[in-house]
Amino acid sequence: MSESVASSPDELKEGTSGFTQDWSSDKQTFHAPWGKAMMWIFLLSDTFIFSCFLISYMKVRITTTVPWPNPSQVFALEAFGYPVPLLLIAIMTFILITSSGTMAMAVNFGYRKNRKVVVWLMTATALLGVSFVGMQAFEWSKLIEEGVRPWGNPFGAAQFGSCFFMITGFHGLHVTGGVIYLICIILKVRRGDYDRIDNYEAVEIVGLYWHFVDLVWVFIFAFFYLW
Amino acid sequence: MAYVAYTDREHDFAHPHSWVTKYVWSQDHKVIAIQYGLTAIAVGVVALVLSAFMRLQLGFPDTFSIITPSEYYQYVTMHGMIMVVYLLTALFLGGFGNYLIPLMIGARDMVFPFMNMLSFWFYLLSVVILMASFFVPGGPTGAGWTLYPPQAILFGTPGADWGILLMLISLGVFIIAFTMGGLNYVTTVLQARTRGLTLMRLPLSIWGILTATVLGLLAFPALLVSAIMMTLDNLIGTSFFMPALVSMGELQEHQGGSPVLFQHLFWFFGHPEVYIVALPAFGIVSDLLSVHARKNIFGYRMMVWAIVIIGGLSFIVWAHHMYVSGMNPYFGFFFATTTLIIAVPTAIKVYNWVLTLWQGNIHLRVPMLFSIGFIFTFIHGGLTGLFLGNVVIDLPLSDTYFVVAHFHMVMGVSPVLVIYGALYHWFPKITGKMYNATLGKFHFWLTFLGCYAIYLPMHYLGFLGVPRRYYAYEGIDFIPNSALMLNTQISTAALFVAVVQLLFFINVIWSLMYGRKSDPNPWGATTLEWQTPENPPAHGNWGKELPGVYRWAYDYSVPGAEKDFIPQNTPPRPGEKIEF
């Protein structure tokens, strides 16, 4: 689903004049295939969704009438008999960032038209994503066992549970959707669809989405768990 | 440059084979546009009937026992929400956006036609969900179109059991539909223009639609988030927006939430939404004025930048809807300032429209009448906006009929006049038939003057302090009897204008059946959609080869030219120097 754009690099200017050249050109503004341009625009829109969630969470946290629970206590995990704060969440973050690494490598091997390696790397990415969602399910069930509910919890402000389940849930849905998206593309890569059109852009586009979901997680991690 | 337009590769381009893929599950942007348009107009008629019921109650209180106070609130709510989101947004972007973008930029279709089709079907689904709320126990929500919590989800508000839930779900589905469509519109304008068509040669209609779509993609997220949070508050008892409170004598289980947060989220969507509706109207009216005045648009670059700047500013003015909400009063200073700044680019646009008319060769055809009518109503509504943008003047006028009059002039009547103008203007292109001009002129004059008969007196009611959203006004000391008489007059005018809209539908149906065949370019317009090989354009729009563009969209009455317009795809004459 793309058009080939083969402006030779020496035509393209750098810096501000390149910017002017892009925006004053005919046919297309960005030197990107349609799917990629559209994914970028979608991610911009999605950024606003997550920003609204996080800003709402901050506002709710500031205005609530009951003290906010201490996240490093709530999210602590028992390891070797000691409570280690943020242990699970650190592992989850590590896994997700690792998956970004494998994804980036998959994109790279895609441009080298190395079908086998792309399939392996993308499968690894999807598996890491699944394990992230699995650990999130574990975290949810642990908190639910401890009595945390969307409408209340034993540790403090009821909004803690509301925000936690809503925001991590919405992000978890994004990861789940991303895994499904990855699987679709993996199947197409395996089938040789992109070799046939000699174009692995679809791998890069799913990569864009995947990196975005990881980046959002970093913000959720920072604002929800570290604050 | 080895640039091969994707849509020029025939094998990639799905041609419809059956009646169903051609007219129902169609991926053709023109069919989708008509589907969007018809759905939006149908749902708009529902909203118009609701407003007629409201006016019946206000104008003739104690006469219609069928209208109960609860129902009155449900009418207010559904009228507002349908008109703003499901009619205006959908018709301007889903309807005109879909129809005009590929034609005006010389593309064969949107970049992702399948997603475009899905966009319409999700929109239809959201409309069905919304309409379903009329038939559930308790009826649709009566929370006011702003859906402010806590009252929106508390029992005692009409529709608290099912209506509000369906409203929130419907909005969610609408946002999904809009996102799929909007991504297509933006990507198509930015990435799929024909050769020679730079951004600064785009017709202003496209600039308006493009900027409005970008606003939509960035503003609807706030509505989506607030809808999700309110659904959770409603369904599973979270307290995002719900403070501790006693309702109907019972202490609610909610506590510690922030109702003002909802208002911030809602208006972070709500104010750009005003411009999502207004910017396409600005763009389209610029083109209409220019075509029918046979003169180039005055200050094209200024008009483009004004659209972009208005779009940018619209994200930092939202709290001017909240001066009386209980937010920090110091915010008022900031938001009043930004609000008044936005008047500058808006005024530039109005001056440029008037200057386009100045010394033009004005043809008072039906689209032109509607466009000039728009300038009147827009100036009118814009000026009252300056009153309401100032905190000190807004405070006494808040929640009075002055506000109702203001936003109906600026956001109701004005865009609707442009929609009518645009429908008459592009009717020959969309259907290939000519409408009945006499009927159209009657439609214009009765609607235009009728709207003034409705909304001018409302300003006066507002100054008297008559509050809006009241079911009845008897026995309130400060409201004189004359105000009640005025209400009767307003209602009469409103019902009259509502009935007059039948003229439009009669005209459309009559013209489709008996109208004479239209020329491919009856107005002598320069833009690409009038230069298609077939009229109405066939699937794929351009026959074998895409048109090339050599000039801007406003070469009217060029000295030395053969005709009084030069289409955008006309190559330069020998010795002609093209600046744009």
Automatic annotation (TrEMBL), chain A:
The chain crosses the membrane at residues 37-60, 80-105, 117-138, 158-187, 208-226. GO terms for cellular component: plasma membrane. Residues 1-20 are annotated as: Disordered. One of its GO terms (molecular function) is cytochrome-c oxidase activity. Its main location: membrane. Keywords: Cell membrane, Membrane, Transmembrane, Transmembrane helix. Belongs to the cytochrome c oxidase subunit 3 family. Heterooctamer of two A chains, two B chains, two C chains and two D chains. This is Cytochrome bo(3) ubiquinol oxidase subunit 3. It comes from OM182 bacterium.
Automatic annotation (TrEMBL), chain B:
It comes from the Bacteria. It is found in: Membrane. It is a multi-pass membrane protein. Residues 19-550 form the Cytochrome oxidase subunit I profile domain. Gene3D superfamilies: Cytochrome c oxidase-like, subunit I domain. GO terms for molecular function: cytochrome-c oxidase activity; heme binding. The chain crosses the membrane at residues 36-58, 78-101, 113-136, 164-186, 207-232, 274-291, 303-324, 330-354, 366-388, 400-423, 444-466, 486-510. One of its GO terms (biological process) is respiratory electron transport chain. The keyword Iron applies. GO terms for cellular component: membrane. Keywords: Electron transport, Heme, Iron, Membrane, Metal-binding, Respiratory chain, Transmembrane, Transmembrane helix, Transport. The keyword Cell membrane does not apply. Belongs to the heme-copper respiratory oxidase family. This is Cytochrome c oxidase subunit I. It comes from OM182 bacterium.
